[in-house]
Structures
1.
Amino acid sequence: MRYKQIMMTAAGFLGIAIIVAACAQRGIPTGGDLKSGYFYSMPETQAMQWDTEANDWADFDNPGFIWVDQGAEQWDTINGEEGKSCAECHGEASSMAGVSTTYPKYNAEDGKLRALQDQITDCLVNRMKAEITKDWKWEGDLMLGMTAFVKLQSRGMPINVAIDGDAAPFYEEGKTFYNTRRGALDMSCANCHVDYPGSWARADLISNGLPNGYPTFRLKWQKFGSLHRRISGCNKNIRAEPYGRGSDEYTNLELYLASRANGVASEAPGVRR
Amino acid sequence: MAKKPRVKVSRKGGLVEIKTLISHKMETGLRKDSKTGELIPRMIINKFVCKFNGEEILSADMHSAVAANPYLAFYAKDASSGTFDFAWTDDKGNTVTASADVKA
Amino acid sequence: MSEKHITTAVLGRRQVLKGAGLGALAVVGAGLSAKDAFATPETAAAYLDKMVGSGGSEGKINLKLPEIAENGATVPITVSVDSPMSADSYVKTIHLVAEGNPNPELISFNMSPGLGKAEISTRVRLGKTQFIRAAAVMSDGSVHTGSKEIKVTIGGCGG
């Protein structure tokens, strides 16, 4: 039994090494010691996310693009009392290349840390004077679609969040959350994702817990969903009361997770098991 | 806002590769509402039809075990030019359509 | 496949055992019993027999499935049949069935010589580790069958 486990883990790492090498060859940043959840997925799940041979990112097999398409449509759609669309201020969506990789980001105007969703909400509410309908809430179809559409413009670019200066206190909060034991199982994020990546939790290969594929189409959810939804699932698993999606706690944690992923390619819209 | 079906038609190795993806929950009718305990009624896309220049080349009878957001990929013969029409019909009889042209 | 349903069905089975032990069989009255909670190799075969008639020869069908499905909710599957797909020799229908799902039927394809090759990919829900069976009816009326086992994991990190 023990032997089988060791062999499976060894095979897992060998698989990861091969795919990392293949990706690096194609110019996709794979980061340092910490690897994207992509490398902890089985080949069929990886194939569903993207076709590394294709010369554009419009991967057809990735169901997340159903939501991305909606985001793309919204980019050019006039919304709100100001009569503006996203394109009116930002121009072509390609102008967003390299933007999402710096989020979550400190915002000097309100002194808060903003996830990309917070920035989109700010645009909708303050610049466009648009109504935040159900579809524009954190886990709404349009918010997921727009977040992923903006992130798509940075797909393949390395995550690059700032953790110093004004962002430092938020980073520290996130780091503390990450290392704090919680819930009936009394476990911290680090207990799995730092202590046991590459090991099996029943049939799941524990990953480094990086956020670079979110929003992601999750096989289990059978739909597209946010990083905060995923974190909330982790918290429930260790029998801890989850925080809200978009809460300060989770946004700070997102910054800490993103800092662990600095240098790793942004993959959103991803596909995960 | 309705999500549009995604369709990709491309020439590949002397054939026409067709991929389709449509957003749908594919509610099985076997799940219970977590609050009320009542069974959630079945609501799936049960039929897919692909026609080329008006003639059916493939249809699929789908059951509740087809995954959410039904995906189908298949190959048509490479005809010089024409139109592929796609139709998805759900349990209530509602049909969503899409089409794609191939040129010589 | 909804996990809730699996849980319900499995509980149902346990209830049968427990219920029998306690003599409280009324609990089972809800209609969930081990027999009808999931398809079996027999019910899957019966469904195929109904669709294509009994018999048929093994072969000509290739089923491509992951060896292990990371999550049973979305499992890619490709079925192909050895056929020229010409006007006088083509595959008319392919039926895919599951031996361990709540219902055996997965999806059926009605095909024509307009298809360039007899190969179709889709994604299905699979409740547990089981055999997938396929039957193809050719234009000359002959029937071919094939099957493949797939392991479906229940992950440690539900989330």
2.
Amino acid sequence: MEFFDTIIQISDSAVRLAIPLLLACLAGLFSERGGIFDIGLEGKMLAAAFLSAAVAAATGNVWLGLASGIGISVFLGLIHGVASITFRGDQLISGVAINFLAAGLTVVIGQAWFGLGGRTPPLSGSGRFANLEWPVADALQDVPVVGPIYAELISGHTVLVYVALLIVPLSWYVLFRTRFGLRLRAVGENPGAVDTAGISVVRLRYSAVIICGVLCGLAGAYLSTGLAAGFVKDMSAGRGFIALAALIFAKWRPVQALIACLLFGFLEAIANRYQSIDTGAFEIPVQFMQALPYILTVVILAGFIGKAIPPKAGGEAYVKER
Amino acid sequence: MEKLPKWADVILIPLINLVLAFLVSGLVILAIGKDPIVAITTMFDGAFGSTTGLGYTLYYATNFMFTGLAVAVAFHARIFNIGGEGQALLGGLGVALVCLAIDWPHWLVALPAAAIGGAVFGAAWAFIPAYLQAKRGSHIVITTIMFNFIAAALIGYLLVEVLKVPGSMDPASSNFPAGAHLPTFNEIFAVFGLNIFKHAPANVSFFVALICAFLFWVLMWHTRLGFAMRAFGQGERGAEYAGISPLKITVIAMMISGGLAGMMAINNVMGESERLILNATEGAGFIGIAVALMGRSHPVGVILASILFGFLYQGGGELSLWEGIPRDLVIVIQGLVILFTGALDGMIRRPLENLFLVLRKPTQNGAV
């Protein structure tokens, strides 16, 4: 029974940890499907985490925080858009720049605003997203097996968790069942054809960048106002890059993205819980668990387990023929 | 016809980009209620006001020369090596293993051995992503990012579990033997009876970096291999028809790049901390990107840009000390430099090109 409880606790924590990855991963999905590489997911998430927590701390209203977080993330996304769509700059370099801007500005502004060495004051009450208790979760708590699964794993997360999970089928629907989705995928594969059909490549790519900004904003806000209670320096801690890894793992598909993020969330939950895992014969060090998502991504990218083929026109600016 | 005169391309555009980056940084300083003029004078005083400050500036600049050259080599072959950070971390391991291997009799023997150790480890760490890109088509930018994280985890593991001094809580290797101590600028100038660069970490590695910059220039513009790399960077197809193997060039360019990044460790690990510590690189691998972009991938440009960033790093430290502005401001400036010189290059370049075309027309008519 104790073993079962442990499994439930780890799974519960895996879900919590998977959500920011999932939102960022879906953000990257829209961007890259539209032909815009985005290694600035990390920076956008970090900036959103900071501003959400800062505004929530200043106003006591977490929804205002969320809106500000999304706002800053979209703004950074638009910088990426201007650089890579309008001025046809290098998308990778632009992403790197955004990561540095966010890493630096969050600390500089945070210190000037709150004077806490780059932290925001701890959030409580209406400054945070509360956990939603589902009906009869308490009553079912003592029922064996089903009770803990319902009460711990399904119930008791913040609203953003459920929103993120709903965005998965929504993304699938938008990308694969709507006209916009078809065009967006086309612009990532063959922008010339889209242009020939009289559809604006620039407008489609900007919408991809904006959707990406909104989702990264949600991811960041969840980090600082849902998962944690306040912002600390560098709190995104490479999650934007794990999200990129998950995106490759999922081969740019939404449902697979959910699975990949849950897997990576699970790895992180295990790494958090155990310092090292003793299998009896040998010991798996905690650092190996932390590095596993990255190692898996390299293996996947190398095509040893299936082949990950990115959108064909990804990373290239579209130059209209004259 | 060239759209821009050469001086505009190599001097004017980087300068305009730099001014833009500094203007935006000034606005950030204003926005947090500080005085940009005070800030810049504080930074300048801290970085150049004393020989100690200058010694720190040159110490940082040495790191950035290695990583900047590393990124620049790859840029010439049109490869974006974002993994300088991981390669420099591994280089630190290589340098540490060499330094701890035997009781070195003299630094003149230890330095070349350590430099080779760092370069080999850095190059090996760059080899895998290069091979995977050339042979299996995996995107080198993503793999090198992943390799940065893997390197950090690996070094963390080795320091905590293997290299740590028994009984110590500090995740660091034991101190290097005295024979592996590199002369600092202070010690070098003491030979001439001068007591300058006191307590500053700048050391002979600075001159090694300058030699590397010179060798970079020879390699790129005076050897067959350099020509092949540049040709490959200009156009993969054409290079292939000319008999240049993409696999070979990608792997060689990346290994030189990784080797240079790894050699940085003779400065920070061997020259400064004299043992291997956690996060020894402090982000220098990433600054190499800004340095290479700013310096237009030319060794002279890289040296100048490195000194600029050395100034920012050292000055930024003073800023946090005296003005209460976090040192992270430097990361903002770094981001802005990358944004303006790298990603938003077209924003300045195209209007300038048009301007030069307009300016040029009358003289051409006059010639006819």
3.
Amino acid sequence: MTKEEKQELRKAFEDIPGTRVFTPERSRMGYHLNIFCMTLNKEEGRQAFRENERAYLDRFPMTEEQKQAVLNREWLKLLDLGGNIYYVWKIAACDRKTMQYIGGKMSGITEEEFKEMMLSGGRSIIGNRSKTSDY
Amino acid sequence: MAKIVGGIGCSHVPPVGIASDKGQTTDGYWSPLFEAIPPARKWILDQKPDVMIVVFNDHATSLSFKMVPTFAIGVAPYYENADEGYGPRPIPHYEGDDQLAWHIAESCILDGFDLTIVNELDLDHGFSVPMTVMFGEVEKWPVKVIPICVNVIQYPPPTAERCFHLGQAIRRAVEEYDEDLRVMIAGTGGMSHQLQGERAGVINTEFDIKYLDNLSGNNIENMKKPHLEYIRESGTEGIELVMWQVMRGALDERVKETFRKYHVASSNTAFGVICLENDN
């Protein structure tokens, strides 16, 4: 792949609506946020987080903005600050929420509406391929 | 001599494992999927496999951004089910064919595929759900396993074409192995789904059906498809379908489809299962 092709590809990712491809830039920005999320895999991490969320977050070299987004459960913002969905989801799981709950939160509908949408065939790809055209 | 006797493509949605573990497979939500599976299980057992190579991805369970191997191979004699936050699944552990796995690692690396060698790896739903789909509820798995782990979470994942060529290298390795073993290979993940962002929940049935058709027809179209097309058409998590190309690459050029089930939706995902038999 040529240099130009690689650059074009990255630009094309940004044209997909409602989508954040987990690029090196996002990975760099979100590393400590994601590593914090990873600690919620273990019961001791979940307990410590539940007991005092702020104090637990302060153990990690995350930005203040990232910490606030965790405390406020701002799911899209967490993605914008470099969170990866598989990692950020661990916060929701710690809250005993489902992937369909945050799917709804991120797309502005309720969990029930999200489930309904999936049962009736999912979100249509038509009109969801490109920010710049509606095919 | 060892040989590859068939391949399976299978989605790995976590709730499918949970439904099986909780005895919910006959519930209205799950029965359309589970009722369709028995012929696939029968076909797999009829092939009398000794070893199942499972191509999957870890979902921030045993691996994390601390270290992201593009391709890794498990060479252990034993694997546990991972605790993904709600306790390990109550299903048997896995016996690995460590000797064959080491042989594949050696052969692939000398062939130009620099696999990361892994001795300890708790296996998450990416691995365990396809095992449940393929073999059902068992007291002991009827096969030894070899996990092949692919990075599909951190961009850039390997291309579909590279995955296909890895499958070819695995096949060459298996066919060089002296023991008479019947080996099957499963490519897992997909089909169309996106978990993240405002576009969460996107499903592209037309894309998925074409992908399934191409596996026994014009697979070159699947193999040559760039990342952009997988992600735009089948969702950011639909990119997992590149792992099915490892499976496809390990099979004959001509294959016969012996089973297919496509179901929308299991949780947030289009669930696909396909069985492919070598036809040369």
4.
Amino acid sequence: MIVIDTANHISALAAKMARARVIAAYPITPQTTVVEKLAEYVESGELDAEFIRVESEHSAMTACIAAEAMGVRTFTATASHGLLLMHEMLHWAGLARLPIVMVNVNRAIGPGWNIWSDANDSMAQRDTGWLHFYCSSNQEVYDSIIMAYKIAESQEVMLPAMICYDGFILSHTSMPVEVPEQSKIDEFLPEFKPAWKIDVENPITHGNIVEPHYYARIRYDMQVAMERAKKIIEEVGEEWGKKFGRDYGLVQEYKCEDADYVILTMASMAAEAKVAVDELRNKGEKVGLVNLRTHRPMPFERLKYDKIIVIERAVSFGLGGIVYNELKGRVPELYGFIAGIGGMDVSYRDIERMYELAKEGKDGWYPIEVK
Amino acid sequence: MVSDRGEIMAIKDLPEEEYVLKGHAACPGCPATIALRITLKALGKKTILVIPACCSAVIQSLYPKTSFGVPTLNIAFEASAAAASGVASALKILGEKDITPVVWAGDGGSYDIGIQALSGALERGTDFIYICYNNQMYSNTGIQRSGATPYGAWTTTTWTGKKERQKELAEIVMAHHIPYVATATIAYPEDLYNKMKKAKEMKGPRYIEILTPCPPGWRFDMSKTVEIARLAVETGSWVLYEAINGKVEFTGQSKRILEGKERKPIEDWLKMQGRFRHLKQEDIEKIKRELDEKWEYYRKVMK
Amino acid sequence: MKTAISYPTEGAMGKTGTWRVFRPSIDIGKCIKCWRCWIFCPDAAISKGEYPVIDYEYCKGCGICANECPVNAIEMGREEK
């Protein structure tokens, strides 16, 4: 079935079809219509779930943690300041190894108030032990949410997952999305089998004081799970492709085989970059595109190119581009552009321009300062 | 002996089952463990504890062992009531009707950092019992002032005594129109037990606050924990009451005081505690005046 | 999968009775079996036998039992080591 709707409504639909049973969420622009739609699903009885109308995002994540610790599949959605308020509990979910799935609609951080797209909100959560996925279309939003449950809930992973997409550019833009039948989704995504749970018949305590030598091992186990997740992400993406005709992996490559330069970007800028690559190819430029749809775990092994031009919508102050710096030293010729901050429009023409600048050996804050 | 209201009248009738296991990490003379023992005798094994950062997070002992015999979910300092909402919703989905989610939080986690989540959970009707064991300070981090610390008390962040009065969290909770609010203290185990039992049999948000005098924090000998709790009630400094659907009734010794029995002088309670040793006569006069005003208010409003 | 899961264990912090400085002893001749010592023990170290039984492996010697005994049947003496 083809549904034409916004990424926010598609997110709610995906959470419903994944059969999330406890949803705890707090409204924030530009995520609000996700919450509204889910409330409607639950109140109309279309979705058999408990919807907790919490008083803050901190409580939203906490309630999801507690429900998930009871062995129940959960969902939440947030953006920007809401995600930042959750920060403490994001770490908690990771360390507790609870495979919560959350949507984050990327939005800039104040002051001054800015509701447009910017990835600094989720980029600032990259060290919390969550799997991070970025989407470039509403179809990818739908597919990624369902796949995220399967990946996160894999016994080899057991880590929470965050699905990110740009505020307004996707969140409020209708696009056609192919939605499989519920029975097919149920075949793909089995019932949640928790790795541990709070249960009166087996009265464990979770999270009491852990001494350093044990604590370090618990942390190390998260790193190992992140590494294992790479394989699971590829496997689940392949299975999805076989079932529904759209293949996914850690990254999506476009015209990279013979490319001299590869543009590496994320989220909606990757859709724009595809247009730029086509335009540049028409002009005879040997250029390809890597859509970095997985940022954690970081798929270094899929980024073995000689010349990469990173274009990213986030910055680490005092360091520079985040993905750019993560790749530094691993790519022989690396260029980094910070672009689209605070929702500044980045069109395919801008991307073509950045490519030309990189060929001249220049990079930096586009278009503010490039040298 | 059991009263015709089903209430236990004597200590000997309290159940023998223990959910706080011997060999835990509490300080000698700890009031929180006395309170938790009595609480869990009333609530039984079908209880899920949610515990934020507080003394009880330590009392549990170290991973991979625990001293608590009921399932326990530790959670961040400000988050316990929200976690209870998550547990309660999961229980609904799982079709479990006989299991009670119970928050066990200190006054720092309730009066201060956790009040937003608490208010939220009460307002949205979470089916749980929130228990605040109140030792009137942040004892776990080393005796710092909280919103529950009384006027004049020394703490490690009020070296010359706290300059403000404590707030009344149970009264703030009552403003949420919930089915059950009660106050108790460890000196009256039957009263505490019966209130827990009553709460367990109700639905919706329920709140119980227990005064738990802390020997190292209040600066008194560890053998006096229960005596000081009793004296807190007898001097009127701590008040025992319960409110069923908003109707307030004083209980035990506090009821007798409300009905006209003389309160013991507050000095009797203050002088037993090192945290009040520095008080000047004018401070004591102020404490007495405010205590009189408090009881005046109770007589007018809460009777 | 590793996370901080702990299991109920008696003596999770070891034999906490070794923290004790003062040792309670009960004169059962005086005991009226009111069980105040039992309910007020923070360490659950007093159990209900025919008379109260103190588990010295876990009694931390706080003295609440002696302080709360209405007939002074419990005495605290300095622990000799």
